[in-house]
Design goal:
The protein is α/β, with parallel strands linked by helices and 362 residues long. Helix content is 38%, strand content 13%. The protein binds phosphoric acid mono(formamide)ester (CP).
């Protein structure tokens, strides 16, 4: 089997898509601006429809004929629960494997065979795995099988977390646009990121959410990204090379307090020390990469404070009640954008769109 992650990006995207539509969801580079905005729109419509009991009942029929497997062998709270919530909203039965000690992998069944077996029971497999490239290789493997079903990457080692990036960009849209309902407008000339500065702070080297969101933001001209991290944890050269190729304006910074006043959004991350091999990040000084309450007098009035969570100490808890703190909103936005994505994967986004237009106008 070719190792998909080593192929050029364009070739990877082609192999992951079918009929010019996403089939497997593995890397953020699969999403262009049109698709991002379409999914934000479907998410916005879905949450409006779900507000009414009749609407929730309608949504509950949309994917009742499909079944999902969550193969999550790395810990997760949000990604797991938002995908299971998305399944529940769309009426889609689901099952999960979260601990391989309860599966036949303990008897020596390979992960490849496990995925092949799961593909016989289910219509989509959402994968969280500690190994970079695992989900992508499984997608490639299923492409060669008589029964091919979508693989969705729910977090792949230190590499990517594309559905987190979707919820992050959806959160940015909801906060940068004058009203969240503006997500529903088909106005591709409007670029809400033009002239905006977004700072990524913390462990950027191993933070897969930052890596995926950087790819998405690179789709928007005139955005400026600041990578604020200790040298040892600075963003990877593969990302900076990608940003160079796409003419994105970015800078490296070494102290959050020097840049906070310039930021329209600040995306905090924790130390990803689960990826340490021998405790190598234990002695890194992170004191310059903490958002403290005493910085608040330098915040812009509409600063968007984000964090993929879980957090440790990188955001002062006294900021939680500040209306600019959006990290718990991100959690809820994740449920709706993943609902939109699941509907899209099974060509049911049009059903939601039609239902919305029948009952609402904008
Ligand atoms: N943000 C995120 O991926 O959280 P979980 O690890 O809890 O899924």
């Amino acid at each position: 089997m070719d190792e998909l992650p080593t192929l050029p990006t364009g070739r990877r995207v082609k192999l992951l898509n079918q009929n010019d539509r996403l089939f497997h969801v593995i890397i953020a580079q699969q999403f262009d601006r049109e698709l991002i905005e379409h999914l934000c729109r479907i998410a916005e419509m879905t949450r409006a429809i779900h507000d009414a009991r009749a609407g929730a009942r309608f949504l509950n029929t949309v994917l009742s004929h499909k079944r999902a497997m969550l193969y999550f062998i790395q810990p997760s709270t949000r990604t797991f629960l938002s995908f299971t919530s998305a399944c529940q909203i769309l009426g889609m039965p689901y099952n999960d494997v979260r601990d391989t000690s309860t599966s036949s992998e303990v008897k020596g069944e390979t992960e490849d065979d496990t995925i092949r077996v799961l593909s016989q029971y289910f219509d989509v497999i959402i994968v969280r795995h500690p190994q970079e490239g695992f989900a992508e290789n499984m997608a490639h493997m299923l492409n060669a099988m008589p029964r091919n079903i979508p693989i969705v990457n729910g977090g792949s080692g230190k590499d990517q977390h594309p559905t987190q990036a979707l919820l992050d960009i959806y959160t940015l849209y909801r906060n940068l646009l004058p009203s969240p309902l503006d997500c529903l407008r088909h106005d591709h000339d409007h670029n809400p990121f033009a002239g905006k500065t977004i700072a990524f702070v913390g462990d950027l080297k191993r933070g897969r959410t930052v890596r995926s969101l950087s790819y998405l933001l690179a789709r928007y001209p005139d955005v400026r990204m600041l990578f604020v991290a200790p040298d040892e944890l600075q963003i990877g050269e593969d990302i900076s090379a990608y940003l160079d190729r796409h003419d994105v304006n970015y800078e490296y910074k070494a102290d959050l307090k020097d840049v906070i006043a310039d930021c329209d959004a600040v995306y905090m991350t924790r130390l990803q020390d689960e990826h340490d091999v021998a405790g190598e990040s234990k002695n890194i000084d992170l004191s310059r990469f903490v958002l403290t309450a005493d910085m608040a007098d330098r915040f812009r009035p509409k600063l968007i404070i984000m964090h993929p969570l879980p957090r440790r100490r990188e955001i002062d808890k006294r900021l939680d009640a500040d209306p600019r703190a959006k990290y718990f909103d991100q959690v809820r936005n994740g449920m709706w954008i993943r609902t939109a994505l699941m509907a899209y994967l099974f060509n049911a986004d049009g059903t939601i769109l039609d239902h919305y237009h029948s009952y609402y106008s904008y």
